[in-house]
Design brief:
Elements: E1 2-7, E2 17-22, E3 29-30, E4 35-40, E5 44-49, E6 54-59, E7 66-67, E8 72-78, E9 94-97, H1 128-133, H2 138-147, H3 165-177, H4 211-226, E10 229-237, H5 239-251, H6 261-275, E11 281-283, E12 290-292, E13 298-300, E14 302-304, E15 307-309, E16 312-313, H7 321-336, E17 350-354, E18 373-377, E19 381-386, E20 391-404, H8 410-425, H9 427-431
Parallel strand pairs: 13-17, 17-18
Antiparallel strand pairs: 1-8, 2-4, 2-7, 3-6, 4-5, 5-9, 6-8, 10-20, 11-12, 13-16, 14-15, 18-20, 19-20
Helix pairs in contact: 6-7, 6-8
This protein binds oxidized coenzyme A.
Oxidized coenzyme A binds next to α6, β14 and β17.
Length: 432
């Protein structure tokens, strides 16, 4: 074992250049030509490589120090034959142009000549041109290649927007948590969300997402990007149903039963699932078979202070409107009191998202996979409807049926929503 002092080689005209990165620490093993430090001038950044292989015994510099040719960088403990003699001449530094400041013309990098890396990219997803153009050190490029990260998609937080190791690590973390691939952004090849400091524009407060937000967010994201959605709109004439609902509420007041439009819509959905069985199916994991269901369980999206949950009411086809209304009240109460069990939210055939009590004209709900369709309900409004001879005021309820186009054709989508509208237009049909 002998010790070797590694010094800064000839770096051209530069003197007293600032060290912006120390890439090794005591105890690290370095190979000949591994980068030890990065220095930066106003025109370029350079990596100073090691002249020997060995173990770092002492690091003689710190970030922020300035250094010139001949300056001592590290002391290595080396067992190699070459270590017997101390090399004054370290390999040439690797030079990279710094990003050109606004309004300043590009200047050629100083001597020594830039060492351009020509290693082929191990992943097909990395664009070699934009990767080369990224502002990052060779060591960082190597690290990024190993992870298959396209540096052109990573935001640099180092000086002059230089990409540092932490940037690559947080990029990978973001991609992994968003369910995408390491190609940057996701399997869709889209740009990842940049990390933004919003406080630069005014006062802000960070609020962590609730557990429910995080969980539903993941499912919604998956469903949004993996299911080819189509949303079919319609308006159901619920004038007579509303009159019937109001009357029923009076009739059942003493029993404490309250009917909302939702109970009727649930019944209509169950009837629709019976008539159009493909809506009551799920794709199996292979995506090559449909699982057809002979039960009729309907999920209901419930808005709670902690986020959205979708409890399921079972056997809607067999239950009376009174039973459905009571169960709906009970289960939405449980949802808001955080008392739902996981089993309360499983096994749905199709879901309803009703925003009718809140407002809005139409919206496009996201299919709640493995279900293949979801019915969105918006606020009913009085509208003039042409009856063939004159306009009549009718209470029209907007319906938005989103479906998985892999399973359901457009024609069936239109048939289903028309059928549900038809049932809602005449309450008697629902009771049959
Ligand atoms: N048109 C007009 N009025 C409507 C209506 C509609 N389509 N739907 C409900 N209403 C009325 C109700 O009749 C009720 O009025 P009254 O008290 O005068 O009878 C009022 O709006 C409030 O209803 P509600 O929302 O409490 O009851 P509901 O049975 O319609 O809905 C529930 C229950 C749990 C679905 C609802 O409270 C809820 O959480 N909705 C939000 C669902 C959600 O967040 N979906 C978005 C998911 S993201 O895609």
């Amino acid at each position: 074992m002998s010790t070797v002092e590694v010094k800064v080689p000839d770096i051209g005209d530069f003197e007293n250049v600032e060290i912006i990165e120390v890439l090794v620490a005591v105890g690290d093993t370095v190979a000949e030509e591994d980068s030890l430090i990065t220095v930066e001038t106003d025109k370029a950044t350079m990596e100073i490589p090691s002249s020997h292989s060995g173990t770092v015994k002492e690091v003689k510099v710190n970030i922020g120090d300035t250094i010139s040719q001949g300056g001592l960088v590290v002391v290595l403990e080396s067992s190699g034959a070459a270590a017997a003699e101390v090399k004054e001449e370290a390999p040439a530094p690797v030079v990279e142009s710094a990003p050109v400041p606004v309004a300043e013309a590009p200047k050629p990098a100083p001597a020594p000549a830039p060492v351009v890396e020509h290693k082929p990219s191990p992943t097909a997803n990395i664009n070699p041109e934009s990767f080369k153009a990224a502002h990052a050190s060779p060591a960082l490029r190597k690290f990024a290649r190993e992870l298959g990260v396209d540096l052109s998609k990573v935001n640099g937080t180092g000086r002059n927007a230089r990409i540092v190791k932490e940037d690559v690590q947080s990029f990978v973390k973001r991609v992994m948590t968003s369910g995408g691939s390491s190609t940057g952004g996701s399997a869709l090849g889209v740009e990842p969300m940049p990390e933004i400091d919003f406080s630069q524009w005014g006062e802000v407060e960070t609020q962590p997402l609730s557990k429910i937000n995080k969980l539903t967010g993941k499912f919604l994201h998956r469903n949004w990007v993996t299911i080819p959605h189509v949303t079919q709109f319609d308006e159901a004439d619920i004038t007579s149903l509303e009159a019937f609902r109001k009357q029923s509420n009076k009739d059942y007041e003493k029993e404490g039963v309250k009917f909302t439009m939702l109970s009727f819509i649930m019944k209509a959905i169950a009837a629709g699932l019976k008539k159009y069985p493909r809506f009551n199916s799920s794709l199996d994991a292979s995506g090559e078979n449909l699982i057809m269901k002979n039960y009729f369980h309907v999920g209901v999206a419930v808005d709670t202070p902690d986020g959205l949950v979708v409890p399921v009411i079972r056997d809607v086809d067999k239950k009376s409107l009174v039973e459905i209304s009571m169960e709906l009240r009970e289960i939405s109460g449980k949802a808001r009191d955080k008392k739902l069990m996981p089993s309360d939210m499983q096994g749905g055939c199709m879901s309803i998202s009703s925003l009718g009590g809140i407002g809005g004209t139409k919206f496009t709900p996201i299919v709640n996979a493995p279900e293949v369709a979801i019915m969105g309900v918006s606020k009913a409004e009085m509208k003039p409807v042409w009856n063939g001879t004159e306009f009549e005021p009718r209470l029209m309820c907007p319906l938005s049926l989103s479906y998985d186009h892999r399973v359901i054709d457009g024609a069936d989508g239109a048939r289903f929503v028309t059928y549900v509208s038809h049932l809602l237009a005449d309450a008697r049909r629902l009771l049959l």
